Amino acid sequence: MNPQKKFHLVFSLVTGAMMIILMTFVITAVNVGFSPDFIRTWMKAFAIAYLVGVPVIFFLAPVARKLTAGLVGAPQ
């Protein structure tokens, strides 16, 4: 795997983990509160969201970069 593709894959995995941990924590807390089952419910939400979110980030990050470059007039 070339370094650029490896970077993109690892970037997707790390970005996915950071965003999904934060978002599933907040949404789980809002929806169920800090109940005795909070950690189990949050981990289930995280696992599902991570399986969906990482591929979405992997495929849409290049689109987001191009769109952002176009919006701010930066070279792609």
Describe this structure in words.
It is a single chain. The mean pLDDT is 94. The radius of gyration is 16 Å and the shape is elongated. It is mainly alpha-helical. α1 (3-32) packs across α2. The protein has helices at 3-32, 38-72. It has a domain at 19-69.
List keywords for this structure.
76 residues; mainly alpha; 2 helices
Give the helices and strands, then pairings:
Blueprint: H1 3-32, H2 38-72
Q: Roughly how many Å is the radius of gyration? A: 16 Å
The largest pleated sheet is described as: none
Assembly form of the protein: single chain
| Structure annotation, total helices | 2
Q: Tell me the distance between the termini.
A: 23 Å
Strand content: under 5%
Number of strands: 0
Taking pLDDT < 50 over at least 5 consecutive residues as the criterion, the unreliable ranges are none
In sequence order, what are the helices and strands, one letter per element? HH
- What spatial form do the alpha-carbon principal axes imply? elongated
In short:
This protein is an all-alpha fold. It has two helices and no strands.
